Each structure stands twice: as structure tokens, then as C-alpha cells.
Amino acid sequence: MNVLISRVEILKLVAHPARITILGELSKGVKCVSDLEGFLELSQPNISQHLAALRRAGIIDYFIDGKLRCYFLKNPIVVDILEILSKEYSGDLPGPECCPTTKKGTYPGKRDGNV
Fold this sequence. Notes:
It contains five helices and three strands, in the order ααβααββα. The protein is of the alpha+beta class. Strands 1-3-2 form a three-stranded antiparallel beta sheet.
């Protein structure tokens, strides 16, 4: 599979608040479902569904310890994604001085309706 397509699929899968939270916790170390239940406001079956989706995609994996499934991060790109998501930015990038093709026009700055 093309690397770019694979990374896009990872981003789609990770783009869920519960999954980002789960991955953030797994980035700190191995966790079992009961550990995740302690801070997520989700049912155990719902947590297990998120974990299964992440595992099918090869983002995480688990080992069995008695009756517990202990989950851990497998794909290293997740650590980079989490780092980017946790960054604080002070503002927008500066607008261009003019059109790079025609060398004319000016960027008016803030527009009405910009979020």
C-alpha cells in the first residue's frame, strides 16, 4: 500500500476524541481496558470497540496476562501525531505580501467571517 494512503487512513482512524485519548494514555505505557475505563467516560464494550479498530489497523497491539489484555502502541507515527496535536500555537502564519505569480495585489488581512 502506498505510504501516503496508509498515513491518511491512520489519520482518519485516529481522528476521534476517544481514540486520541486512548492513544495518549498508551503513549505513557501499557494499559488494560480497566485502566482505560478509569478516565474515559465510555462503557467497557465501547472502549473495546475502539481498541479493536486501532488494533486491526496495526496502530496498537496487546498481550495477554492471565485474564487481562494489555494494550500498547505499535506504530511509531502515533507518537508524532500526538506531539503535533499537543503543540500550542500563538497565531496564524503571516499572509503573503502579494501574488507570487503576478507580483501584484496585497493581502487585506483579517476578513469578515473568518473563524
